[in-house]
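FORM 7B: Structural annotation worksheet

SECTION A. Query
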Amino acid sequence: MRFTSLENTSLLFVLDAITNIGCAFLPPLALLLALAFTKGWETLPHKYRLLFIVPCITTVVVWTNPLHGLQYQQFSIFRDQIVFGPYILFSGAYSYLCMVLGILVAIRFIAHSSGRIYRMQGVFFILGLMFCTAVTMCISLPTVEAALARVFGITPSFGLEIAILLVSALLAGVTVYLGLKKG
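SECTION B. Predicted structure
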């Protein structure tokens, strides 16, 4: 059973734009989570709010895409029919940069941490970010997607479901950590 027909491209575009909100904001949130964890922040310093400028611009670009074609020159829900616009390179590079920086911040924390529990939390955080980065690469780079499909018989939708599970587990772990820290 389908939610909508494949011919209803307007609704499919709106649904894609809704999911793009999360896709735009998750990489800087992951970086901020790594920074908050490693620096022990209780509140977000004001200067780090600047990390949300690009996701806000990306959200506006995606929602207004029919006017300019910066995100999609040809929209489709089928990967082989999409023609991306020039903005996708900028937003993609920013997303990868945030995820890689989050991983590097966590690696640095592990290297300088003396407590076993903090090192283990850092390792799990890194594994979660690496997995999410790999899933993002599978979705955005068709050669990686094709290689995974040939070698393992999996597709990005399978990987995305696993990523959602891992992110949920990561958030649960952070919640437990914050609860232990307060009480």
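SECTION C. Observations
DSSP finds seven helices and two strands in the chain. Residues 153-159 have pLDDT under 50 and may be disordered.

SECTION D. Sign-off
Analyst initials: ____
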